[in-house]
Automatic annotation (TrEMBL):
Belongs to the transferase hexapeptide repeat family. Its main location: cytoplasm. It catalyses: L-serine + acetyl-CoA = O-acetyl-L-serine + CoA. This is Serine acetyltransferase. InterPro entries: Hexapep, LbH_SAT, Ser_AcTrfase_N_sf, Ser_O-AcTrfase, Serine_acetyltransferase, Trimer_LpxA-like_sf. Keywords: Acyltransferase, Amino-acid biosynthesis, Cysteine biosynthesis, Cytoplasm, Repeat, Transferase. It is found in: Cytoplasm. One of its GO terms (cellular component) is cytoplasm. Pathway: Amino-acid biosynthesis; L-cysteine biosynthesis; L-cysteine from L-serine: step 1/2. GO terms for molecular function: serine O-acetyltransferase activity. GO terms for biological process: cysteine biosynthetic process from serine.
């Protein structure tokens, strides 16, 4: 148990440049407190002491602002940064070396029974305000951008942005700095920019054709004015 607590403290120091000392981490990091409380609640849950485990999780929620259901399974080196508003559902499974920012929801989509929350792989970063909803798998080495809404499986080594979440791949490799979840591409904006470039190219071609016909004495075939598309 103490070995795992040391790993948890080192995880905070590795991921948060604002963490200055172990003493500060132990006494001031609500994400760390929520994880420790969850371990207690999860052990009670596995022994089928459901009510007592929920009491522990709700007390933790009151003090930390982070709600982790006692049934959720969490791997090693989870880092919850700030964490206010984070919600992790009962059947959620989280792998190793995962970073979760504030306002994230790992939840379900209805009143279905059984496995109804996502499975998060290893080395995943989930940006602020993101929602991952449903019983599917998010692969390893995935970045989920801030405020993304993910409703379908995500392959490993990819990036998800937007609402609904869209996968953006870059040669099958993780994009950029794994903690820089603000500098992620937006496929909708890229599509609009590409359309604007095509429109500009068509306008240029029309101007060139009009000039060519005017020089050939056929200017009456092309009306004057700016070509519009």
């Amino acid at each position: 148990m103490f070995r795992q607590m040391r790993i948890d403290i080192e995880t905070v120091l590795d991921n948060d440049p604002a963490a200055r000392s172990k003493f500060e981490v132990i006494f001031t990091y609500s994400g760390l407190h929520a994880i420790w409380a969850h371990r207690v609640a999860h052990k009670l849950y596995k022994r089928k002491w459901y009510t007592l485990s929920r009491i522990v999780s709700q007390v933790s929620r009151f003090f930390t602002g982070i709600e982790i259901h006692p049934g959720a399974r969490i791997g090693s080196r989870l880092f919850i940064d700030h964490g206010m508003g984070v919600v992790i559902g009962e059947t959620c499974e989280i792998g190793d070396n995962v970073v979760i920012y504030q306002g994230v929801t790992l939840g379900g989509t209805g009143k279905e029974r059984g496995k109804r929350h996502p499975t998060i792989g290893n080395n995943v970063v989930i940006g602020s305000g993101s929602k991952v909803l449903g019983s599917f798998t998010v692969g390893d080495n995935v970045n989920i951008g801030s405020n993304a809404v993910v409703l379908r499986p995500v392959p490993s080594n990819s990036t998800v942005v937007g609402n609904p979440g869209r996968v953006v791949k870059r040669n099958g490799e993780r994009v950029g700095d794994r903690l820089d979840h603000t500098q992620l591409p937006d496929p909708v904006i890229e599509m609009l920019r590409d359309m604007q470039r095509q429109i500009d190219d068509l306008k240029s071609e029309l101007r060139a054709e009009r000039a060519l016909r005017r020089s050939a004495g056929n200017s009456e075939l092309i009306p004057e004015g700016e070509p519009t598309l």
